[in-house]
Structures are given as C-alpha cells and as structure tokens.
Amino acid sequence: MNTNRLEAFSDGVIAIIITIMVLEIKVPHGETLDALIPLIPVLLSYVLSFIYVGIYWNNHHHFMHMVHNVNGRILWANLHLLFWLSLIPFATGWMGENHIGAVPVALYGLILFMCSVAYAILVSAVLRLQGQDPKLAAAVGRDYKGKISTILYLVAIPLAFVNQWISIALYVTVAIIWFLPDRRIEKVLVD
Amino acid sequence: MNTNRLEAFSDGVIAIIITIMVLEIKVPHGETLDALIPLIPVLLSYVLSFIYVGIYWNNHHHFMHMVHNVNGRILWANLHLLFWLSLIPFATGWMGENHIGAVPVALYGLILFMCSVAYAILVSAVLRLQGQDPKLAAAVGRDYKGKISTILYLVAIPLAFVNQWISIALYVTVAIIWFLPDRRIEKVLVD
Amino acid sequence: MNTNRLEAFSDGVIAIIITIMVLEIKVPHGETLDALIPLIPVLLSYVLSFIYVGIYWNNHHHFMHMVHNVNGRILWANLHLLFWLSLIPFATGWMGENHIGAVPVALYGLILFMCSVAYAILVSAVLRLQGQDPKLAAAVGRDYKGKISTILYLVAIPLAFVNQWISIALYVTVAIIWFLPDRRIEKVLVD
Amino acid sequence: MNTNRLEAFSDGVIAIIITIMVLEIKVPHGETLDALIPLIPVLLSYVLSFIYVGIYWNNHHHFMHMVHNVNGRILWANLHLLFWLSLIPFATGWMGENHIGAVPVALYGLILFMCSVAYAILVSAVLRLQGQDPKLAAAVGRDYKGKISTILYLVAIPLAFVNQWISIALYVTVAIIWFLPDRRIEKVLVD
C-alpha cells in the first residue's frame, strides 16, 4: 500500500485548514480604514497560524517523501495529526477575536503542543515499520528541533497567564526554528 | 476507466467533510475558561464524527485499492455514499449544540445507518463488475463487521429515546470495532 | 500540456461545491423532531443539487477521459463552467430557505441553463482542438441529451411563475435523463 | 524532490479560495427579484475575483509545468503567494458588501499588488534554482505583463480615493491583459 492517497488526503485536509481560517476574518460593516483596526489581532493570528500550518505541510511533505509503505497504524497516526491541526483554526479565531487574551493564547499553545506530539507519534509509527532504513534513520536523527519545540510549547502555556506576549514570542521563536525545511532530510535526499 | 479520479474526488469530498465539521465549533465570545464549557459536547461530537469519517476514508482507501475498473453504477454508488457522509457534519452539529439530546442522537444513528447501507451498496456494485476476482471476494468475505455495525445502529436509534447515552455507547463500540483497518483486506494484499 | 492538473483542479472545485451546500442546512436550535420540519425544503433542494453536481462531475469525468491536450481556450472554458456550477449552492440555498418560491425556482433554472451552455462551450473548445479525433466525434455525436436539457431549462424558467412545481418536475426530469453516465461515450471507450 | 505535491497542494488551496468566495453571497431572506438587487455589487466583485484567481491558477499551471525540482525556498515562496491569494475572498467580500466603496477598492488593489509581488518572488526563486534552463529563461523573458500589472495596481490604489471606478477599470484592464494564458510559455513548450 503506497503513500500516494495518504499524501493526497493529507494535502486536501491541510489545504482546507489553511484556507478556512480566512473565514474567521469577518467582513466588517463599515467601509472606512477604522473598520479594519479591530481586525489587526485577527489578521496577526491568521499570519502566525498560516505559517504554522505551512510548516507542518512542509515537514509532512519532506518526511512522507521517504516513506515507502503505509499500514493501518500510520494511517491512524496521520489522521490523529490532522485532527489536532484541524483545531488550529478554532484556536486562531478565539485568540484573534479576544485581542490575544491569556486563556486563548494558552489554548493555542496546548493545540500546538498536541500537534507536535501527534507528529512525533507519526514519525515513530513510520520508524516502526521502516526503521531498518538507514536513510530515514539518519534524516530523523535526534530530532533536536522537534524536542525543543515541544519543550517551548510546554513552557509557553503556563507563561500565558503571566504575560501572553511572552508565549506569543515563544510561538514565533518556534516558527522561526522550523521556517526552513528540515535540512537534515533534504541533505540525506540529495546525497 | 480507472479508479484514480474516483479516489481523488472522494478524497476531496471526505477531506472537506472531516474539516468543515470544525466550523460548527463556534468561537466563543468570552475569553475565560468558562467560555469553553458549553463547547464540550460540541467537541466530543466532533471527535466521534472525526473518527467515523476517518474510518470511512480508511476503509474506502483499502477497498478501492482492489478495484481496477469503474462503471457508471460504481460512480453513482460512490456518490450516494458521499451524500450520506456529507450529512454527518449536520447531525454532529445538531447533536453537539443540543447537549447530546435524544432526537439528535437518534438522527445521528440514522445517518450512520444510511452510510453503512450506502457502503454495502458500493461494495456490491464493485462485486457485480469484478466478482470473479477471488482476491476481492476473499477480502470482502462474509463482512461480519459491516453486518454487526448495521445491526447496532438499528438498535441504537430507538434506544436513544430510552437513554441517549446507551446509543452513544453503541456508536463508540462500532467505532472501536472498525478502528483498525480491515485486517482481512490488508492480509490479502500482503499475501 | 496534459489534462491531469485540469482534472485535479476541477475535481477540487466540484468537491467543494457539492460539500459546502450542506453548510446551508443550518443546525436548528430546538432538539425535537419539529425543529427539523422547516428544513425539509432545504434538504430536498440539497438532494436535487447534489444529484446535479454529481451528474456534472460524472460527465466531466467521462468527457475529459477522451481529451489528450489542453490549451488556453479549454482552460478558460472549464473555469467558465466551474463559475456557473459555483453559483448552484447559492441558488439551492435561496430556493430551500424560501420554501421553493417562484423566483428562486426560476433563478435555479437560469443557473442550470447557464451550466449547460458552459458545458457545451467546453465541449466545442475541445472539438476545435481535437476535432479530427473520430472517437471523440462519435462519442459526442448529436448530443440529443444536452440539447433536450437546455430546452427544458428554457421552458422551466418562465413556467416557474405559473406554478413552480412544474419547473421542479422538469428539473427532476432532466436529472433522470442524465442520471446514467453517457452510454455513447462509455460504449466508444469500451469498443 | 518533484513538483507533484506542490502543484496538488496549490490546486487544493486555490480551488478552496475560488469556491469559498461564493459563501460571501449570502442567501437573501425575501423571495422576490428585489431581494437580489443588493447582491449585484457582491456578484460583480465575485466575478472579478473569480477571473483573477482563475488567472493565477492558469499562470501557476503553465509556469510550474516547466519547473522540475523544488527546494525549501520555492515551497515557501509558493506558500507566500497562497497567503496573499487567500486574502482575496476577504477583500472581495468587503468591496461587495460596501457597494464598491473607496477604501475597500484600494485594499483590493493592495492585495492584488501583493499577489503580483509574491508571484514575482516565486518566479525568481525558481530561476535561482533552475536559471541555467534556457527554455525557462526564454519563457519568462522580460515579463512585460507582470511589470505592467504591478505598476497599474500601484496607480490604482491611490486613484481609488479620487474615484473608485477608475481603479475598478484598471483592475479589469489587468484582467484582460492576463486573460489569455501566457503565449510566451505556451510557444516555448510547443517549440
């Protein structure tokens, strides 16, 4: 059983997730520039989430490129990841509509944390099936990036109740860490 | 006429169904944790439906893998299945917004029942075209799982009026039965 | 330039059109069976439109199967068809929410008429590029079905102002005519 | 790393963008023809945006056809383009709901401008990886069309505050310029 349809389905779901977030940017009733001001936090939340979903699509794209076979465990690990990703639009909308309030910022971090856990489960499901593949093992490596991100989310969640902008700064930091696609994998593929 | 475009179209529709359900989780106006409490039944309904739609995609994926040709009958049987699946977000939203009330729970069961009937029609349309294929016949087998699910839905619908949590328990039971992809098919493919 | 991406994009748009119509079936606030009664015309409109969009996907699927190359004219003829198809959810919602009123029924017919014109333009754009292909010419033939449908829509639009149920009956008639995929094409492909 | 999944994901996102715009055409409550009159600017905005998104899909389709490999830079340049395209439904809705007011028309132009900048960045990211390809270089050429469009948007944005219909006329002009797919590329591909 190959990965084509898994990739196509994941692409479809991720494409919808990244696009329906824009539906949260409600068309304002006034037609002046002032009418756009309340939308600024909504737009900033959208930009952050767009980048996050883009990062997941990017990493998923790179990672699945090295997966040759799919079993039931991998299918479900992938659906589990899509489930948590599908909650990003909700958390984004809640954060944006409440002017980046403390609880919404903490929830946003919780969902990012669950996404990173789900991604790690997917990777380990693939390694379990295909772990003898030295190329894959080398590419995944020690996964410093993944571990650092997970720790930063865990730190950011409680810190949102101290000052939510610290948490936002941490989410932006993680996004910057991941911004470039995983060089390890790209390097292995080129070698 | 091959199955590629049928699979691609089904993947698209199922990806949209599984994702638009999240639009029913309306962003609350308050920014406290309390504001999330009314969303708990909505979220639980979403989780259940996400798993159900995931199961259908999974089984569809496995089953279509063994289908080599498509005729008009199969195209329409597939659209018929997609029609009933497309009503799951509505039933999920109604159930979630009414705190898992009796009538919504019964309707939810009715739509799951119709999905299972539509799936059986799709399988029989394929068998009619390709019934001579011993691999497929072996994989479909006696379809105990399918028959048990259909019966459990039929039992769950009236029981919702006694106590809706019995019906929910039955839906969860069916989900657990199907959770793992169809081992029969996977076994045949590997052999 | 081959047809793969044109088909994939069309599948995507048609999959979204067929699925977002379900968003018009708004979750009712009550939790009794009575709460579902106002939704009956909405549901019936949805069923009719689901079948219509399904027919277009079906015919598009069959027809594009015989197209080998795509030029700018065909790309735009295809987008033009998708434009009119994309208005079906609006017309469906308006018809359903107004208890199948006369003006909405006429508008619904107008949009179906424009879809059939757009489909004819797409077919002629393909014939212009690939008209020397005897298989395609034989499959398209005299296109009785297409011509009859277009005439029936034209008749149904003014009749909606006499009695909208006559128009609905005509739309159902056209749907039945098209229900089975185009045997002419299927026959040519099999030969 | 090939372009298949990049194209599939872009097709998905563009298909969703082009289709969710129709959700802005809210179903009116009345059932008379009068009820449709307030929708005329909404519909006209939709037509313009549908053509614009269609043009981008068309050009993306043609351009990606000549791209053989994808790196991280191209993936992100593509996501950046999709980001600005995803704001078109918002700008369209705002413009339509406010009877083509001055500020919404200027914002619409700003987003079209950003889309054209993002497209230019994508093209230059591809040229950077694959610039030695004489076919591609010839096809991209001096990109008069792209440069003229970008200038026309820049002119149209301030002019919206003089008279918004001048800006609309400029947007329509750019759409006409791009309406036909890029003959340069098509010519090179055929040669």
Would you give an account of this structure?
Four copies of one chain form a homotetramer. The first copy, chain A, has 191 residues and is mostly helical. Chain A is 75% helix and 0% strand. The first copy, chain A, has helices at residues 4-20, 40-64, 72-86, 88-97, 102-130, 134-140, 144-159, 164-179, 183-190. Chain A is globular. The two termini of chain A are 27 Å apart. Chains in contact: A-B, A-D, B-C, C-D. The interface between A and B is medium-sized, with 33 and 35 residues.
Give the SSE map.
The structure is a homotetramer of 191-residue chains.
Chain A: H1 4-20, H2 40-64, H3 72-86, H4 88-97, H5 102-130, H6 134-140, H7 144-159, H8 164-179, H9 183-190
Helix pairs in contact in A: 1-2, 1-3, 2-4, 2-8, 3-5, 4-5, 5-7, 5-8, 6-9, 7-8
Any key phrases for this structure?
homotetramer; 191 residues; mainly alpha
What is the gist of this entry?
The structure is a homotetramer of 191-residue chains. The first copy, chain A, has nine helices and no strands.
Fraction of residues in β-strands of chain A: under 5%
Number of domains of chain A: 1
Total beta-strand segments of chain A: 0
Low-confidence stretches of chain A at least 5 residues in length (pLDDT < 50)?
none
Largest sheet of chain A: none
Helicity level of chain A? over 70%
Radius of gyration of chain A, whole Å: 18 Å
Give the overall average pLDDT of chain A.
87
Please report the number of helical segments of chain A.
9
